[in-house]
């Protein structure tokens, strides 16, 4: 009987580990599940980052020459900026607006693909190219060290997958409203998936979220770009909030200012 009990305990432990491992982390990718379609001009800072003409991530306009996205969107290809373009000034993923070439890519110097820490990159275009389109305007950044209040409303937008079960990008920009999550709760909820660092924060809402194809896109609150879609576990999973790069982190904000003067 003792041997049987030990065997059952072992089987349970193995089953638990298999079950736990079967929940895939959304590293690295991010969609807007159950979002609403945006109207033309509603998100003038939103960009579609494209590699070899195919949409891979979102990005945001910082000024006429600079855009910002997630480092994992360009990781491994930063020395080939000619492969990347930005579609701007349109809520359509594959039409409208204009398309600009990327001249230089800068990943945050301490970005770590293993834990997604400091998941941010800057894209430089020809001077003034990003604001030549009348339907485009920059989004402001927060100050270094600015606090993100718990339960703060924020808006995330992108062209990513429309459901967690169908690998179909949205043809029209979608957006949804989420709420920021207490940092300790965020870390505890994701502790089996590496947790979060001070350069990250979480946001969530019932049955809606960012997902694959939304990575690198904007999370805004009170007219400022407070976060970048970074990673998560599944999409719109009620047990796991989405994780965003914290743009007010001093090491991120200072690096952006050093390169862009913004």
TrEMBL record:
UniProt xrefs under SMART domains: Tryp_SPc
Q: InterPro entries, per this entry?
A: Peptidase_S1, Peptidase_S1_PA, Peptidase_S1_PA_chymotrypsin, Peptidase_S1A, Trypsin_dom, TRYPSIN_HIS, TRYPSIN_SER
One GO-annotated biological process of the protein: proteolysis
Any one GO cellular component localisation term in the record:
extracellular region
Q: Which GO terms describe its molecular function?
A: serine-type endopeptidase activity
- Stored SUPFAM superfamilies: Trypsin-like serine proteases
Location comes to:
Secreted, Extracellular space
Instruction: Name the keywords, alphabetized.
Output: Disulfide bond, Hydrolase, Protease, Secreted, Serine protease, Signal, Zymogen
Catalyzed reaction equations:
Preferential cleavage: Arg-|-Xaa, Lys-|-Xaa
As recorded in UniProt, coiled-coil segments are none
Signal peptide region: 1-21
**Enzyme nomenclature, EC number:** 3.4.21.4
- Which Pfam families does the record match to this protein? Trypsin
**What range(s) does the Peptidase S1 domain occupy?**
32-261
- Tell me its family: Belongs to the peptidase S1 family.
The identity of this protein, by name, is trypsin
Query: Which species?
Result: Drosophila mojavensis (Fruit fly)
Gene behind this protein: Dmoj\GI24097
């Amino acid at each position: 009987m003792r041997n049987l009990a030990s065997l059952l305990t072992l089987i349970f432990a193995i089953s638990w580990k298999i079950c736990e491992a079967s929940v895939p982390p959304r590293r690295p990718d991010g969609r807007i599940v159950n979002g609403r379609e945006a109207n033309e001009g509603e998100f003038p800072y939103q960009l579609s980052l494209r590699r070899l003409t195919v949409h891979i991530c979102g990005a945001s306009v910082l000024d006429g020459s600079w855009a910002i996205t997630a480092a994992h969107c360009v990781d491994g290809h930063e020395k080939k900026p000619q492969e990347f373009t930005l579609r701007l000034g349109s809520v359509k993923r594959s039409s409208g607006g204009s398309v600009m070439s990327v001249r230089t890519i800068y990943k945050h110097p301490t970005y770590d693909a293993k834990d997604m820490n400091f998941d941010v990159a800057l894209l430089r275009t020809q001077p003034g190219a990003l604001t030549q389109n009348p339907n485009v305007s920059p989004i402001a950044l927060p100050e270094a060290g600015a606090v993100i209040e718990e339960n703060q409303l924020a808006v995330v937008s992108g062209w990513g997958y429309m459901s967690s079960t169908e690998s179909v990008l949205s043809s029209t920009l979608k957006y949804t409203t989420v709420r920021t999550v207490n940092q300790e709760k965020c870390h505890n909820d994701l502790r089996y998936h590496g947790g979060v660092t001070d350069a990250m924060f979480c946001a969530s809402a019932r049955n809606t979220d960012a997902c694959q194809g939304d990575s690198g896109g904007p999370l805004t609150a009170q007219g400022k770009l407070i976060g970048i879609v970074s990673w998560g576990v599944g999409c719109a999973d009620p047990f796991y909030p989405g994780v965003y790069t914290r743009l007010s982190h001093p090491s991120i904000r200072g690096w952006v200012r050093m390169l862009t003067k913004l």
